[in-house]
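[recover] target loaded
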Protein backbone atom coordinates (compact mmCIF):
# COMPACT_ATOMS: atom_id res chain seq x y z
CA UNK A 1 0.00 0.00 0.00
CA UNK A 2 1.82 3.07 -1.26
CA UNK A 3 -0.02 6.15 -0.06
CA UNK A 4 1.23 9.69 -0.71
CA UNK A 5 2.87 11.46 2.21
CA UNK A 6 1.00 14.35 3.76
CA UNK A 7 1.00 16.80 6.62
CA UNK A 8 -2.28 17.20 8.41
CA UNK A 9 -3.67 19.11 11.35
CA UNK A 10 -5.36 16.90 13.96
CA UNK A 11 -7.73 19.68 15.04
CA UNK A 12 -8.89 21.10 11.72
CA UNK A 13 -9.43 19.73 8.20
CA UNK A 14 -6.13 21.15 6.82
CA UNK A 15 -4.13 18.67 4.71
CA UNK A 16 -0.98 19.38 2.69
CA UNK A 17 0.19 16.67 0.29
CA UNK A 18 3.96 16.24 -0.03
CA UNK A 19 5.67 15.61 -3.36
CA UNK A 20 7.69 12.43 -3.42
CA UNK A 21 10.79 14.37 -4.55
CA UNK A 22 10.99 16.30 -1.29
CA UNK A 23 13.26 15.02 1.46
CA UNK A 24 12.78 16.38 4.93
CA UNK A 25 15.74 16.54 7.25
CA UNK A 26 15.59 18.17 10.59
CA UNK A 27 18.52 18.33 12.94
CA UNK A 28 18.07 20.99 15.57
CA UNK A 29 19.75 20.93 18.90
CA UNK A 30 17.43 22.50 21.40
CA UNK A 31 19.13 24.56 24.05
CA UNK A 32 17.29 24.95 27.31
CA UNK A 33 16.89 28.61 28.19
CA UNK A 34 17.70 29.80 31.65
CA UNK A 35 14.56 31.17 33.21
CA UNK A 36 14.54 33.94 35.74
CA UNK A 37 12.81 32.75 38.90
CA UNK A 38 9.49 34.38 39.66
CA UNK A 39 10.47 34.65 43.31
CA UNK A 40 14.18 35.02 43.97
CA UNK A 41 15.91 33.46 46.96
CA UNK A 42 16.13 36.92 48.54
CA UNK A 43 12.37 37.49 48.20
CA UNK A 44 11.47 33.99 49.35
CA UNK A 45 11.37 34.85 53.06
CA UNK A 46 9.55 38.15 52.48
CA UNK A 47 6.48 36.27 51.22
CA UNK A 48 6.17 34.04 54.29
CA UNK A 49 4.54 35.05 57.58
CA UNK A 50 6.89 36.06 60.38
CA UNK A 51 6.90 35.13 64.05
CA UNK A 52 9.06 35.42 67.14
CA UNK A 53 10.90 32.11 67.39
CA UNK A 54 14.49 31.89 68.64
CA UNK A 55 16.89 30.43 66.09
CA UNK A 56 18.77 27.41 67.51
CA UNK A 57 21.77 28.35 65.36
CA UNK A 58 22.32 32.07 66.02
CA UNK A 59 19.69 33.01 68.64
CA UNK A 60 17.97 35.66 66.46
CA UNK A 61 14.33 36.06 67.52
CA UNK A 62 12.57 36.52 64.16
CA UNK A 63 11.81 33.67 61.79
CA UNK A 64 9.64 33.09 58.75
CA UNK A 65 7.41 30.05 58.98
CA UNK A 66 5.17 27.77 56.97
CA UNK A 67 2.98 24.82 57.89
CA UNK A 68 2.39 21.52 56.14
CA UNK A 69 0.31 18.45 56.94
CA UNK A 70 2.98 15.72 56.92
CA UNK A 71 1.19 13.02 58.88
CA UNK A 72 -2.39 11.81 59.16
CA UNK A 73 -5.26 14.28 59.40
CA UNK A 74 -5.80 13.75 63.14
CA UNK A 75 -2.17 14.76 63.90
CA UNK A 76 -1.13 18.42 64.19
CA UNK A 77 0.58 20.18 61.29
CA UNK A 78 4.37 20.42 61.06
CA UNK A 79 5.69 23.98 61.28
CA UNK A 80 8.85 24.84 59.35
CA UNK A 81 10.93 27.85 60.42
CA UNK A 82 13.67 29.80 58.63
CA UNK A 83 15.79 32.31 60.54
CA UNK A 84 15.59 35.80 59.02
CA UNK A 85 19.25 36.46 59.90
CA UNK A 86 21.25 33.29 59.13
CA UNK A 87 18.62 31.37 57.08
CA UNK A 88 18.94 28.28 59.28
CA UNK A 89 15.97 25.89 58.84
CA UNK A 90 14.32 23.86 61.57
CA UNK A 91 10.94 22.28 62.18
CA UNK A 92 8.53 21.78 65.02
CA UNK A 93 6.33 18.67 64.92
Amino acid sequence: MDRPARFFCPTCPYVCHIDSKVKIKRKHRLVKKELDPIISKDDELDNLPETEAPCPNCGYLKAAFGQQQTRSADEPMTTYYTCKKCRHNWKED
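[recover] notes: The two ends are 68 Å apart (CA to CA).
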